[in-house]
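I hope you will forgive my troubling you with a question about protein structure. The record follows directly beneath this note:
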Amino acid sequence: MKIGFWRKFWKVLESLFKKVFQQSGEEVFGSWRPLFSKKGFRKGVFRGKVFPLKFEKFLEVWNLFLKKVPGRKVFGKSETLFSKKGFTNKKNFAKKKVAVLISHLAEGGAERAASQLTFMLSSRYCVFLILFEDRISYSYAGRVLNLNLPARKNFFWKIYNFIVRVFAVWRLKRRERFFASISFLDSANLVNLFSKGRERCILTFRIDYRGYSGGFLFTFLGWIYRFFSWKFDRAVVVSYGARRGLLERFMLKEERVEVIYNVCPLEEIGRLSKEGLGEVWEGLFCFPVIVHVGRLEEQKGHRSLLKLFAAVKARLPEVRLMFLGEGELRGELWEYAHRLGLRGWDRNGVGGGMDRVLEADVYFMGFERNPFRFLKRAKVFAFPSFFEGFPNALLEALACGLPVASSDCLSGPREILAPGSGLEGTARGIEFGEYGILLPVPRFSDPFELSEVEVFWRDAILRLLEDEALWWYYHSQARRRAEDFSPACIRRQWLKILEE
């Protein structure tokens, strides 16, 4: 380096230290020269006397200096202190690294929550997104580390795959020296737990385990979480009902289980909901459309929704039903809709092309990157789940101003739609909550005859479709409730857990 650089360097540094000491009320005369050692910035020489330099004071001066002298910032490990471009950032003052573990970032509520968490933490931390499979559908912030270790079906291959995942993540943690690691869903939670090093280990649980009846796998998971509870620092759940279920089933300590609701990015949802649909789909939404967002699996109650929709359509022939989501029951639900006399349309090409869209009754749209443009134009959001943790789809429907009819399942819907009613209440009929309608959980039995609970569902949806005053009331309340789950509020809770 040129001598002129060092003269400029010491001149700027000296002026900054004088400025700081003068602000504290001390008189500064003479020159100030720092002393370096292998352990860092330890002592200073001032007016011929050696004195220990407070770390807080040095950090304040250091930040002021980085603003004055141009240089590149180093996030993570730093090998050198100086470069030709200026004074680089020191390792001790770089952003802390946080790892977010999840199997993949394709469709799903947990996957969307992990995606949103990377954006909330990226301004404070250096975020690493660790994936087991190379499937990404959501946007993210930070750096992706793909392990290319997809799930296996064979039991022995599952055990082998788990061991390899644990070893791979352990090596990453050791190399990158993460400050904290946050995992989503059981597959990533177990890997995070058994690969723990010196970092803060935070597990997140997305469902209410009281909804599970039992079985070997559930018993084994409970034993693992209970026996190795000393290894993780915090367990984060998405609702107070899910917290109660975790404490009852896994018998964890109450002080180690925290509740952080899912975030609702209102600005992003508002922007995406304004995107166009095209002439054909805009024509469809001239009719009243009931929409459901979620994976097509047994837990979501789609069969009951199809059956009661057929009863609603018998009274209002112009009504339509739309499923936004992918899943293993897609073929079965298509056949069941045909048995009910409903005409289906599938985005994969089954049921006709785009010229047959307006003739169908039920639409299987598959995974949709931007479901908000459909939610914004729909009439009612139906959510007949058997159990949940904290339903993202329900919150996003409220953010789009969509009136909601939801099952009063474990857990989440009651906390969202009727927050003042407590956790013990259970709907026995049609319950008009403050922000939406709660109904009993529908249980599918007869494929053609409506049960008593399904009759409640039919009447509630008809009420929303026919009573314009009721529809406008819940339309205005929906957006108001969604504002309680803003990113700024949820981000503060995450930072508190990470920094405590």
Remarks:
- Confidence is low (pLDDT under 50) at residues 21-52, 69-93.
